Amino acid sequence: MTQNSEKTLVQSQLTHLNVEGEARMVDISAKVATKRQAIAAGQVRMLQTTFEAILAGNAPKGDVLAISRIAGIMAAKQTSQLIPLCHPLPLQKVEVHITPDPELPGFQIRASVITKGETGVEMEALTAVSVAALTLYDMAKGLEKSIEIESIRLLRKSGGKSGDYISSEK
Amino acid sequence: MTQNSEKTLVQSQLTHLNVEGEARMVDISAKVATKRQAIAAGQVRMLQTTFEAILAGNAPKGDVLAISRIAGIMAAKQTSQLIPLCHPLPLQKVEVHITPDPELPGFQIRASVITKGETGVEMEALTAVSVAALTLYDMAKGLEKSIEIESIRLLRKSGGKSGDYISSEK
Amino acid sequence: MTQNSEKTLVQSQLTHLNVEGEARMVDISAKVATKRQAIAAGQVRMLQTTFEAILAGNAPKGDVLAISRIAGIMAAKQTSQLIPLCHPLPLQKVEVHITPDPELPGFQIRASVITKGETGVEMEALTAVSVAALTLYDMAKGLEKSIEIESIRLLRKSGGKSGDYISSEK
Amino acid sequence: MTQNSEKTLVQSQLTHLNVEGEARMVDISAKVATKRQAIAAGQVRMLQTTFEAILAGNAPKGDVLAISRIAGIMAAKQTSQLIPLCHPLPLQKVEVHITPDPELPGFQIRASVITKGETGVEMEALTAVSVAALTLYDMAKGLEKSIEIESIRLLRKSGGKSGDYISSEK
Amino acid sequence: MTQNSEKTLVQSQLTHLNVEGEARMVDISAKVATKRQAIAAGQVRMLQTTFEAILAGNAPKGDVLAISRIAGIMAAKQTSQLIPLCHPLPLQKVEVHITPDPELPGFQIRASVITKGETGVEMEALTAVSVAALTLYDMAKGLEKSIEIESIRLLRKSGGKSGDYISSEK
Amino acid sequence: MTQNSEKTLVQSQLTHLNVEGEARMVDISAKVATKRQAIAAGQVRMLQTTFEAILAGNAPKGDVLAISRIAGIMAAKQTSQLIPLCHPLPLQKVEVHITPDPELPGFQIRASVITKGETGVEMEALTAVSVAALTLYDMAKGLEKSIEIESIRLLRKSGGKSGDYISSEK
């Protein structure tokens, strides 16, 4: 394969790069602004004792999970300033759910984001999940150093020309 | 257990909460500013074809991994604005390494942060890893929707009164 | 009243909470983007001597009031990053007026904001007033510790389906 | 009084201006970094029905007051980016308390901030109060347009060469 | 000329000022959102030895120019937070090119920005060029103190009612 | 020259790159925090008619130059968030001067920054000058499209182990 044809190949695959392989925020001005939604998820795994301490800290009126939810929502609004090639998009909805999971043990996090924009909001949803997880970690890091943030992934995505996506997980 | 004694317990466990269970940025003014380091890691798993496209995009002069490294470094500096109860700290070093891992397949990310401050920089290192991973995801999301960010965790931590920590992973 | 019916009630009243009482940035994607305006006001009360020093500092070419005006305008653009559940909105106009009020003595601040968005800009106008007031306070705090920021409120609001509002003050 | 002597007077009074009356972030490099604390307060007045709706929304596990507390804490960390001539300072503690006040009716807000820096943290405490108040307003603005933020002021201040300050209010 | 007629003149010339000469973010709500593009340029001049060191640092896989490109792209997204009276605009494309210029010696920087908004993106393109130049400077400042950023200017602009502009340079 | 020895050379020259040529925020934790100052300058050249309009707009109480000064001061505080590999530093002083220069015609901008930190503040001073210049451009761009920002450079630098620097310009 000649070097030139390889470049073309790369470009068609990684839209964030131009033919020289250089970073760019790709032109989406020809795309139509439509309603698009993305839902992402992730989990925070910890020791049973840490899990119980957080649940206790969240007992009536405790702020523990609220802090994580709010951090996730605020981070979604910062996405284009954190991820270099993300387009700034209006966000019409951001919601973050955090559910205790005694099996893990730990917490399941899920974020849902809606825009009426020219491109999708996967990164906004994934960023909300990531920062909510980091915030939960921050709350509990005095108790345990081995906490782990796992499986940050896209669950579903709808709207836009490329079609809908639903992850195959059960 | 009376409600009062439980509150005291919670407080001693989750320092980010006061005795009422309310969020606070805890007082560290009595602590001494000393050199502290944290190293965190994580990985991004993807399909073999996606992995190869990124490596190709990173071929001589391609910006792919540079974008992720830089996003991670810049995010470390934003940590206290993303994580609600993190103290703003001076950062004397931030370094992010991204290594292709054909076994995964995907990429291993590692961040190392140093401060001369009154508290540790675990969150800064973990935030750098998370945002570097999200940026790599963003580069490749046009190719694959099932990419997953995994195992964001603390590898080691030194400095400060609470002693050093080295994760038990081999 | 059963707990369930109470939840429904709360939800209908505080749209920033879901039925579980959890924070969310509520979905406005079904609303139409139309021109909306909000005007807010507030005042900064100080001693007569402080008031005169600021007026003197603002004498020909002094930057005193300009600094406050500009801080208010810039803060309006930051509103969605300061107020956790505010939607990021395009702003088509921000204007801040600061008027000396010898009766107070002190300064009257008024901010006017226009968007073409799916929700109103009350918070942007109120944030502009608040930060302009804080900036005026900052200028004068070396002279007096008893300065007070008072009466930050919405004066009027137009556009949107919920109808116009004009405060009843004379 | 000649124009020149007036300039000198202004300068000695408003340290944020140079002799030309121009804005500057004044040089504090000769000052010593010591522990300094500031406590500020403010209140949000609303109708009885609004007050009760917020209290209901904050019923077991509701996030209402947590959102305001966290917004206030995060805003304290943004102070030097909101107030043009504020020095960026390390913050060793930020705490925000919000108390229902049935007499008002409404909420009392109090913020306490500590730095080990070359200048005080009055503006950080006042900014935390202001943004916590704005966030409370934002939560309730769907219920009432006549909410008012009142009496944002410094309660006390300690540390630094200029001596301590305790407001004269009872 | 009377003072009043002068004020009117100023206003018609500097739209960022009201009739009182006070700063404002001018009302563009009556304008139509259309596609608008701006291209800006600038250059960084340095010693021959510095120039060669940067080229060597950018040798296969070096991040030097990538860092500048990315900094420029990210800065374009921050424009309305840096330039006080700039309207926040959606950006549909940002691209930054950096070309070694052995004649200078140094680097030529060019940024191209597209919006679908009510006003142009000259400032976004100029900000991208400026910050890319500053970043290049930062990389090389350990080698040379006499680096100079030169000739930041608008090359062309299209879209909007005021007509297209093409700079007269050859 | 072998590839390995070249790498070592690059590293010693561009401290922002590691031996692999990868971006990093270099470790300065071994350096001592001392007082350091930097002064930078630049100019904005425009047509005579534009120059006169700005001077008129700045006539008694006009905000024109104040806006630029304040934008420059605020930008200095944002430097480490704009320039990817800059260390976040405390800033003890930022001052921006803007002087009309009828010879140019246009404006001379000069920024002076002081830190008590482990590394210098050249980038903070240069960023202040750049953003002050961009803001002046923004004020006048409605009048003229051919404005040019020129000659952004370091005038002097003192403090730190590398010795003082004074530019050779007369």
Automatic annotation (TrEMBL), chains A, B, C, D, E, F:
GO terms for biological process: Mo-molybdopterin cofactor biosynthetic process. This is Cyclic pyranopterin monophosphate synthase. It comes from the Bacteria. Pfam families: MoaC. Substrate binds at L85, C86, H87, M123, E124. Catalyzes the conversion of (8S)-3',8-cyclo-7,8-dihydroguanosine 5'-triphosphate to cyclic pyranopterin monophosphate (cPMP). The active site is at D138. Homohexamer; trimer of dimers. Pathway: Cofactor biosynthesis; molybdopterin biosynthesis. It catalyses: (8S)-3',8-cyclo-7,8-dihydroguanosine 5'-triphosphate = cyclic pyranopterin phosphate + diphosphate. Signal peptide: none annotated. The keyword Lyase applies. GO terms for molecular function: cyclic pyranopterin monophosphate synthase activity. Keywords: Lyase, Molybdenum cofactor biosynthesis. Residues 25-160 form the Molybdopterin cofactor biosynthesis C (MoaC) domain. Belongs to the MoaC family. Its EC number is 4.6.1.17. The keyword Transmembrane does not apply.
